[in-house]
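Notebook, p. 212. Picked up where the previous page left off. The plan for this session was modest: take the two constructs that came back from the sequencing core last week, fold each one, and keep the raw output in the notebook itself so nobody has to go hunting through shared drives later. Recording the first one now, exactly as returned: residue sequence, then the structure token string.
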Amino acid sequence: MQLVAPHLAQLAGSGVKTSLLVTSSSLTFVPIGFYPSYSASKAGVHALLLALRQQLSFTPENIQKNFSISEIVPPYKDTGLDAEHREATIAMQGGKEKAFPPMPLLEFVDGFFKALEETGPDGTLAKEIGVGFGKVGVDTWRGSLGKIYEQWGIST
């Protein structure tokens, strides 16, 4: 990040629309004990992106105008990566009746590209691009803790 961010800021400063997209997870906002390291590392990604956006707010206006930092927040997806642990994950969520089923991968991909196209009036990307349960986490965070940053006048 130490080398990439200044390069992207330089591009943005020269007038090139520039975006940094980094993937976290819905487990950023709702950690599950079966995946403690994964949940914590994704929460760290979220915190890093908040800090980078705050740092971006101290750069010249032309950089701010052209540089988007977006967090991709996918839900639990049906990729087969957790095939060995899926039953245990379902059990930890209270059984099949209560558990969030994994989203089919193509449904996630379609939802992501649809959400990616939803830009601001100036063409900037959303700060978070959540799909399915990932969007629930983003909306909940923005509607609660995100309000604290707004009150403090800190860009996130």
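Okay, moving on. Second construct, recorded in the same format:
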Amino acid sequence: MKRLLNSPWVAAALAASALSAPMAYGQASVPVEAAEGGRLWFVELSGAPIADGNTASAVRSEKASFRRAAAAAGIRYSERRSYDTLFNGISIEVQPVERAKVMALAGVKAMYPVERIQAPAPEQAAGSAPDLVAAIHLTGASIAQTPRAPPSGW
């Protein structure tokens, strides 16, 4: 059996079956031009976010270092938002010619384009409407929301 598994024919058959298996594909890459004109970016910093064990002061310090390094490099950008808990980074607006300079700064792990995705319109069948009044009883949440007197003897 061991000799059969080491056979080049078995290896070729396994490779062929792997190639014919359905492939999982990730999201297609977004061209820079399509990413809000190439001006809006998420900048991921190299330190871990707070949720991964980093401290809030360390995350703030890393952002301050990024801001100082960008100012020293003469990079003109506008900070849109700052993220600490699940993502350690900031969202910036920067001209496309400055993007390579931002990526070259110490402490920058990666840059991702900001993409706007339209939310789909909710589908409703003809004549139907959400019945939120009945939902509280159907889910049993009414039990949790109904105030009750403590049992006698308390």
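Notes on construct two before I forget. The first helix runs from residue 2 to 5.
Flagging for discussion at group meeting.
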